Amino acid sequence: MELRELRSFCAAAKLRSISKAAEQLGIGQPTMTTHVKKLEDELGVQLFDRVKRPIQLTLAGARLADLASPLLDGIESLVAMTAQAEAQGPIRIASTHEIIAYSLLKVIKVFQAEYPHVLIRLRGASQAEVLQRVEEGEADFGVIPAPHRRASLDFHGLFPYERVLITPKGHPLLETSLASIDQIAQYPLVLLGQGSSTRAMLEDAFRRRGVQYEIVVEVDSLETIKRCVSLGLGISAGPRLGIEPQDQEHLGIVSLATLLPVEQAGIVTQKGRALSTPARNFLDLASDMIAAPGQKDGHQTEACSPEISSSEDGPMLNGDVLHKIEDGLSRVRQTRSRQRS
Fold first, then answer.
1. What pLDDT is stored for residue 269 in this prediction?
2. In degrees rounded to 5, what are phi and psi of residue 262?
3. Any bridge partners for residue 255, and if so which?
4. Start-end of CATH 1.10.10.10 domains in the chain
5. Which regions of the chain carry the CATH code 3.40.190.10?
6. 118/111 Cα distance (integer angstroms)
7. DSSP assignment of 76-141, as one string?
8. Cβ contact 269:154 at 8 Å
C-alpha cells in the first residue's frame, strides 16, 4: 500500500468522481483508476460501487475513507511542519566573546531583518570550548580567531585577526616605536582571563623571551579592559576588531602586527555535517559582511605573517562594517518591496 494510492482513493471518495479527483491531483484518469484498483486488489475488497453516478463508497470504502483521510491530513501537516522547522531554525552559533560583540552582532542585525522568524542561539566561549561545542554537535558552527588542527573539523578563513596595544592617553609607549615585546612587559597588565587567545599569545611571547611580567587586573570583557586602561590601571592588548572610533579619544592604540602573529579568524564546522538552510544563509551573509577581500571562496587559510597586516586599518571594521550593514538592510528592503509588488 502506497501513499499515492491512498491519496487517490481519498480524493475520489471526497469528490465522488474518478475524473474530478484525477484533475485535482494533476494526474491522468487511467493512473487514478490504476491506483484505486491496486488498493482494492491489495485489500481484497471493492471500495466503490461504480454502477451509479456519481460513484458511491461501499461499506468497506467508507470505513477506509474514515481511517485514511485523517492519516493523510496528518502526513501533509507533518511535511509542512518539518519545512517550517527547517525554515525557523534554530541556528546554534558558538564564538569567542570579542568576535560576537564586534563582528557577529552586526551580521545578526542584518540577518534578522531579512529572516525575522529564525531563532539564533549564540554562545560565547574560549576558542577551545568553541571547537569542542562544534565537535560534539552542540553548535552548528563556530567562529574563532585562529585556525585549528583538529582532523574532525573544517576551517574557512574570513579575515585577518590583528592584535593592538591599548594604553592610556599620554603613555610612554606611545612616544617610542615598539621594537620588542619586552617593552610591554615593563608595565602593569590588564588582561582577559585564562583561555583568551590574545592573552595566551602574549604570555607565550613573554616566556619565550624570558621576561618577567605582572598582571594586575584580570577581567572578562574587552570593554572592561578599555575602561580599566582609560583609568590608568595598566596597559593591555586586544583584537583590533574591538576598537571603536570613539575609543581613540581616550586610549592610545598601537598595532602589534610586527610583534605578534596576525592570525586568520574564520568559521569552523564539523567535517561532513550538513547545515540547515538558515545556517547556510547566515554563513553566506557573514561571508559577505565580514570576510576580507579574496577570502569569500571558503578555502582554508593559514595564519598570516606579521608583515601581511601591519596596516593601521582593521579588517572591515568601524565605518566599513557600518557600510556593510546599510548595504545589507538595503537589500532586505528591496527584496520586501519586490515581494509586495
1. 95
2. -95, 110
3. 164
4. 3-87
5. 91-160+264-306+318-340, 163-255
6. 9
7. HHHHHHHHHHHHH--EEEEE-HHHIIIIIHHHHHHHHHHSTT--EEEEE--HHHHHHHHHTTSSSE
8. yes
Residue at grid coordinates 525557523: 88
Q: CATH topology for 91-160+264-306+318-340?
A: D-Maltodextrin-Binding Protein; domain 2 (3.40.190)
Residue 188 one-letter amino acid: P
Superfamily of domain 163-255: Periplasmic binding protein-like II (3.40.190.10)
Distance separating alpha carbons of residues 69 and 238, to the nearest angstrom: 63
Residue 51 sits at φ, ψ, to 5 deg, of -70, -45
Look-up: residue for cell 572578562?
220
Strand, helix or coil for residue 195? coil
pTM for this one? Answer: 0.66
How many other C-beta atoms are found inside a 10 Å radius of the C-beta of residue 111?
Answer: 23
The phi and psi torsions of 136 (rounded to 5 degrees) equal -90, 5
The predicted pLDDT at position 80 comes to: 67
**201: its cell numbers:** 599569545
Provide the angle, in degrees to the nearest 10, between the axes of the packed helices 105-114 and 319-340.
10
pLDDT digits (tens, 9 = 90+) for 221-236: 999 999 999 999 999 9
> CA end-to-end span of the chain, whole Å?
45
User: Given this model, what pLDDT does residue 52 score?
Assistant: 76
Quick one: pLDDT at residue 317?
A: 38
Class of domain 3-87: mainly alpha
Distance CA 258, CA 309 (A): 9
Question: So what's the pLDDT on residue 336?
Answer: 52
Residues in the chain predicted with pLDDT less than 70, given as ranges, are 79-87, 292-341
User: Which residues have CB under 8 Å from 145's CB, separation 6+?
Assistant: 96, 98, 99, 127, 161, 197, 239, 263, 265
Q: How far is CA 53 from CA 7, 16, 56, 125, in A?
A: 21, 8, 8, 71
Q: Which three cell numbers stand for residue 58?
A: 461501499
What would the pLDDT profile of 291-311 be if each residue is shown by its tens digit? 865 555 444 434 443 333 333
